[in-house]
Write a structure and sequence with these properties.
Shape: globular
Order of helices and strands: HEHEEEHHHHEHEH
CATH class: Alpha Beta
Number of strands: 6
Strand order of the largest sheet: 1-2-5-6
Strand content: 5-15%
Distance between the termini: 51 Å
Number of helices: 8
Helix content: 40-55%
Radius of gyration: 21 Å
Structural class: alpha/beta
CATH topology: Rossmann fold
């Protein structure tokens, strides 16, 4: 087993990920000579660089899409936090939606959206902090989409673990010839057992997972509280 930490924040490299990470991965490929490289996450600026090294070694690539975050910059597939989004990564629309998720007021979002791209680039050179983030977000998302498309084009197969992920990937241009729906490994004969036995009519829920906002545990709590 090999592990290497990414030294995020190196301004000399794409998206802040240092080229030394790619070099370290290249060394692992040289040492192990794998028959297949399987990515389970997509990090813009880093994953495409690692995938490029695998292609340089002529090693086939498989990528499994698990969560919305690779294509949804806010991570929850909720358009402006209210309506379920189909998941198309459109840099302009997604920039506005992401700014809303970061707490930007509607007036500021509209103002940034109305600024022409050349002027945004000029202002971003002198802006700092959240102002620079707001001005560069649309172009950053455009590069992110291009990086994702590069990974897809260089992969033998793209695996979706559920139907919504399969539909989302198709919507974002992944060829169906490369897509494979491979559900999580649960025996078909298994059934979810009701939590009502011996405890009246109350519903019991067991959650096993990390306490992270993208897991949606708060939604489950609100749903249970809404029951009579």
């Amino acid at each position: 087993m090999h592990r290497f930490r990414t030294a995020y924040g190196d301004a000399s490299s794409l998206y802040g990920y240092p080229r030394s990470d790619v070099a370290a991965f290249d060394g692992i490929l040289d040492a192990e000579g794998p028959d297949l490289v399987h990515f389970h996450a997509f990090v813009g600026g880093l994953t495409p660089g690692l995938a490029a090294q695998a292609r340089r070694h002529r090693i086939p690539i498989v990528y499994t899409y698990h969560t919305p975050t690779a294509l949804c910059s806010r991570g929850d597939l909720l358009r402006m936090g209210k309506k379920v989004c189909e998941g198309l990564l459109d840099p302009k629309d997604c920039a506005s939606c992401t700014l809303q998720a970061k707490g930007a007021p509607a007036v500021a979002i509209a103002a940034v959206g109305s600024v022409p791209a050349p002027l945004k680039c000029a202002l971003a050179r002198v802006a700092r902090g959240r102002y620079r983030t707001a001005l560069t977000l649309q172009s950053d998302l455009g590069r992110h989409r291009a990086s994702f498309e590069d990974l897809v084009s260089g992969s033998e197969r793209i695996i979706a673990v559920c139907e919504w992920a399969f539909r989302l990937l198709r919507l974002n241009g992944v060829p169906e010839s490369k897509l494979l729906l491979c559900r999580h490994g649960v025996e078909a004969r298994e059934r979810v057992r009701s939590g009502r036995d011996g405890h009246g009519s109350s519903l019991r829920l067991l959650y096993a997972g990390r306490l992270n906002v993208d897991k949606g545990l708060d939604v489950a709590v609100k749903a249970l509280r809404s029951l009579p």
